[in-house]
Amino acid sequence: FIPIYFIAKLLCSDEVNAYYYSAYFVSFLNYMVHALCAFLLFKIVLLIGASKKQAYLASAFFGITSYSFVFAQSTYEHHFEMFFILISTYYALKKNTKNSGLYSGLMLSLGLVFRTTTILAVPAILLIQSNNKERLKALTTLAIGVVFVLLYNYYRFGNPLESGYSLAWSLAHSDKFDFWSLSRIPIALFGFLFSPGKGLIFFSTTIVF
């Protein structure tokens, strides 16, 4: 979003219009990335031994009925994160590719540049690598992304472990708002499933099955 925003600023004198033009363009870009993710899912399902019919169904269900389809209109980076995690998974499963571990780890590094939550996919992707040699290769190229993120955080916030999320949260919410209270779990789960404002039942209908 940021590179597109700077391009829009060069073309628009008004910063507000530059933002909305950027958001409008990115909303289409995310749908293209979403479609690529559906294709990658098709290829991954084939790699794990499913039939073409099963792969088509999995790809279609994801592409049309998942929350990813609805959320693609946003300007957030989740779809790019998902895209690189899926490519990493594809390389991890593709046994006949030379240096598949290097490519797999490199894709995770690129995912980290978009969202640091990409790191949550690392254990599973390491697990599906074909052998320990490929796992080591994946960790080697993954280190590139980790070092980049740490250096960026240090440059911007003065702390390599500060991503900015905690600062944004403290500015957006009052200290009196006990968001992480255990007593809120029942109502939070109910909203997670049934809320018309992003509940899974409404925005990811495949969960019904």
Verbal overview:
The chain is mainly α and 209 residues long. Helix 2 (15-47) packs antiparallel against helix 3 (52-65), helix 2 runs parallel beside helix 5 and helix 5 runs antiparallel to helix 6 (100-114). The two termini are 35 Å apart. It is globular. The protein has eleven helices and no strands.
What order do the helices and strands come in, and which of them pair?
Blueprint: H1 2-11, H2 15-47, H3 52-65, H4 67-71, H5 78-93, H6 100-114, H7 122-127, H8 132-157, H9 165-172, H10 185-194, H11 200-203
Helix pairs in contact: 1-2, 2-3, 2-5, 5-6, 6-8
**Uncertain runs:** none
Average pLDDT over all residues: 85
**Count of discrete alpha- or pi-helical segments spanning 4 or more residues:** 11
Radius of gyration, in Å, reads 20 Å
Tell me the distance between the termini: 35 Å
Provide the succession of SSEs: HHHHHHHHHHH
The biggest beta sheet, please?
A: none
Q: What class do helices, strands and sheet pairing give? A: mainly alpha
Strand content: under 5%
Helix content: over 70%
Total beta strands: 0
Could you say which overall geometry the principal axes of the C-alpha atoms support?
globular
Descriptive terms for the model:
209 residues; mainly alpha
Task: Explain briefly what this protein structure is.
With 209 residues, this protein is mainly α. It has helices at 2-11, 15-47, 52-65, 67-71, 78-93, 100-114, 122-127, 132-157, 165-172, 185-194, 200-203.
